[in-house]
Amino acid sequence: MHRASRWLVLALVFAAGQARADIDSQLSSYETEARQLGTDIPKPGQQDGHGQRRLIDAQLQFSLGDYEAAALALFELATQQGPEHDTATYYLGEALFQKGDRGAARTYFTETVQKAAGSKYVQPSLRRLVEIAIAQNDFTEVDGYLAPLDRSPEGVYVRGKLAFVQGKYDEAQTLFGEVPKGTTLELQAQYYLGTTAVAKKDLTRAIEIFTDLIGRKPKTSNDRRVIELSQLALGRLYYERDQPSKSIDSYLLIDRRSDLFSDALYEVAWVYVKGKQYDKALRALELLQLSEPESTRSSTTRLLEGNLRIRKAQLIRNSQIAGTALEGGHDDPAVEYDKAVAVFTETHDLYLPSYRALEKIADTTTNIDQYLVQIAGRSSHVFQTQEPLPDAAAEFLRDVPEVQRAVAVETDLGEIEANLTQAESMITRLEGVLAAPDKSTVYPSLAARRSRIGQIQEDLIIIRTSLADQQLKQVSGGADLQALTTQRQALVSQYQAMPKAEALYAQRVEEANAQLDIVDESLGEVSSALDGTQAMAVALRKYAGDLPADQKTTLGSTLESVASESAAIDKELVALRNELALGRDLAGSGDEGVLKARQVRRDLKTALDREHSTLATLASSGDARKLATLGDRAARLSEYLDQIEHTIDGIVDTSLGQIKTTITKAREDIVGYKTELAQYETESRSLGATVLGASFKDVKARFYDVIIRTDVGSVDVSWSQKEDADDDLKRLNLSRQRELKQLKDEFKDILSGVAPTTPGTPSPVTPPPTSSPPAPSGSPDKGAGEGRVKPGTSEPQGTPLPNVKPDAKGSR
Length: 812
Description:
The chain has helices spanning 2-37, 50-63, 67-78, 85-99, 102-115, 122-136, 142-146, 153-165, 169-177, 186-199, 203-214, 221-240, 244-251, 261-274, 278-291, 298-322, 333-362, 368-376, 391-398, 401-435, 444-474, 479-497, 501-542, 549-585, 592-618, 623-746, 748-754. By secondary structure, the chain is mainly α.
């Protein structure tokens, strides 16, 4: 029995020793982690090395082709003095240039040239300034750019482009010839040599240059582009020199994935038309319509297809008459005529609504600026008060160069407005977060450290409670120790009965997000209903033309009222969505349960500190001293973590003070930007309305021409069918007369023997052969004449020429 007691004591001692070893290991692990948490605490707004990192990130975005994101990232660096200023200014100009905003790009390139003398970015900036002058056709300051421009291959190339644009072809040829071989600009310079030869009417030399170019192997995307443009240029040159086979071969070299493939298809169709290869021309047009279904060129291709169907039907019929049609062939003129009628009818029905809409709009002088907003695609709710433009009309208007410039300005203004709205929304969210009682979640990186500190503190409470209970068994204390122990045990019971702060916070965030998701779905349903109302309003305005005047007036006033309410609801939806975003930011922040759990944890830590201080003084030696040592380590670790948390709070408070100052200034800047934007929008809308008003009439005339040509095409089909019927009747009559004459000749003796003539008897009078009246010849709108008039041309004979020649698109 005595031996058993000894073994039990040894087992308990071993277990206690093992527990102390585990606690020692845990404390060592937590001490290491605490040192990591307290080292290199990120300070929001710290600029050391931050600008360089942002510059590298922006350059990476630039190299990936995301010029808009690069410009946004570079803007702040370019407006602040620092080591990254010159580089950021140049790359900002380059990003804007690649993005197409040449006006803004010129500002930053000019700043680089003026303020960064001796920088490696001066020469590239000068070259870009010359290219912008060429693109904008503004040469007022170009001499100042050329004077300091070096004679590098890039500088020589830009000088050559300027000479070419100014019509100095001999000088341009000399400059392009000076671009060294093997450089990145060699192929581009050679292409310009070819275009210069075309401008000087030296087509033989141009063909030689372009032929050499298409045999090169591209090294860059620019080289590939130059080769494709050379293939297109060769096709046009061979077309002009009446070499259709070579022209077709050149066109068909262009890759199907190239954006020039549609131009090649359109132009190769005309080459086939010129050679009367109507089947191949039709196939090219079919491919073109598949590749560009929404192109403004669709009207021309549809009309061309209809006329080609008529010509094909005529060729099939002529081959059938001449007996040269293939045996077993299934070609039928009637089928081609039906297809031509279908094409003309579909085209007429497609563009007639656009013509009628423009006919009503062309004479109006009010609210034209709203149509500009639609064409630019700035807002989906701006047309609640009036009927929108048909899509085809909008596409034709976008094709007008003056409208394109107005749309580009309107698009830029729309982007600025969207950016200001987004900035204002973000400022509102920041103000809401700053107004919350708990600011620990403002900075995610710092919030993550606070959360981990809280988890370690929870584990330390368990360890310290266990150590305190073991120490109480080793020492004997008085009433003071008993009071401290009782207080600590009460807090431990309270702490264990409530959820932990970090877990409760995560639960509150999840619950809040779930509720916000329900609200978000409801807002989506309201938005869908609003869109349905919008569509119904547009439909009612579109089909209200046949209503009586009083009903139309009532409908208009009702729709105006609905439009006003719809705009108000839409504005409220935007505000609610902003509040939803703020709600997600503040989810769990300031929750009473979380705050109470953290306060109880702080109170428990204080109670443990007091109890441990008393127990440490009572521990003299042995296990009590070892336990006290572990308790000291745990207390110091808990205090160190508390200091880290206080440091984080100080960093947050300092950063929030800076943020408040920044937000106040940003609010003032946004007010100024909005005022400036309103001024620019007023000017843009005024000029855009003037340009658009003039373009309405031009585009209406284009639609009128398309509709008239479809009507003429349908008449041509009917007239061709009538002429075919007349020709058939004429041939039948001629065949009948020929057969009657042949019969009379063969049976002349019999006929004369059956009815002999006697002297004095008058000979029977042979009636003249009957024949149908001659069929009219020629199209009714061309007048009668000899020879059939082919649809689409006024020449009765000869090769029909295309009434639209391939343009000179593609020159660089």
